[in-house]
Design brief:
Elements (H helix, E strand, L loop, with lengths): L5 E6 L1 H5 L16 E2 L2 E2 H4 L2 H6 L1 H15 L6 H12 L7 E6 L5 H5 L4 E3 L2 E8 L5 E3 L18 E5 L9 H9 L3 E5 L11 H7 L3 E6 L11 E4 L2 H14 L2
Parallel strand pairs: 1-4, 1-9, 4-5, 9-10, 10-11
Antiparallel strand pairs: 2-3, 6-7, 6-8
Helix pairs in contact: 5-9
The chain binds nicotinamide-adenine-dinucleotide.
Nicotinamide-adenine-dinucleotide (NAD) binds next to helix 1.
Amino acid sequence: MAQVRNIVILTGAGVSAESGIDTFRAGANGGPSLWEQHRVDDVATPEGFARDPDLVLRFYDMRRAAIQTKAPNAAHEALARLDAEWPKDANHELLIVTQNVDDLHERAGAKRVLHMHGEHLNAWCTACDARSRWTGPLIERPPCPRCGERALRPDVVWFGEMPYEMDRIYEALRGADLFVSIGTSGAVYPAAGLVRNARDLGIATLELNLERSQGSAWFGETRLGPASVLVPAWVDEVLAAL
Ligand code: NAD
């Protein structure tokens, strides 16, 4: 492997699949996608929340409780090792951009993580805009710790909402010499478009996934297999080439 200095990594639900956290499932016969048996439109859109807030809050309460029973797998641990061993000097950069709303990258020890779709373990107050660490349920409409209003919702970016920190992601990409996409279907934009941005910038691109993603043709190299096997092997390669 050629030596790289500046890496942007994009992770998706596939990285957490082997920790027992479900990815999205394609609906039968071209029907709507499902997330834990729910239509994505019902539980992951502002319209779904407006229609049935109790359903949405209960759904995220269950997801928030469930992720706290899960543990990082070998893929999260390998990325945390990369983060720990990657030089922290002006010539090297690393950013792990995750679409995942779980906290398994952090629990494995990774530090340079950006949650572009928010976090299950945060609540967002729609009255005062404060974000608070939140591990319990929201269904009983607890007051915001900052302003006291009962206006907390999951701090998760729903379909139709703007992902977080896109400027920082594009800036990191502009300085990168390698873009790696791990365990993501390439179906959710703008994350799915990052590989094309990387290509336009002349950056090397690598996909690690169980199966070819929708944007697979855009990658310079694709490796297929479980993240728990592919990611540790790739991290070994990158660190050996330092
Ligand atoms: P996705 O569910 O659309 O796709 C998952 C991808 O991972 C698929 O391409 C699949 O082939 C691959 N995959 C499955 N198991 C794998 C494994 N063991 N190793 C490697 N790859 C594997 O997920 P996405 O592309 O991240 O987009 C869906 C959206 O769903 C995101 O916005 C995310 O916020 C949300 N989501 C998050 C979580 C989570 O936080 N863990 C879980 C489900 C959905």
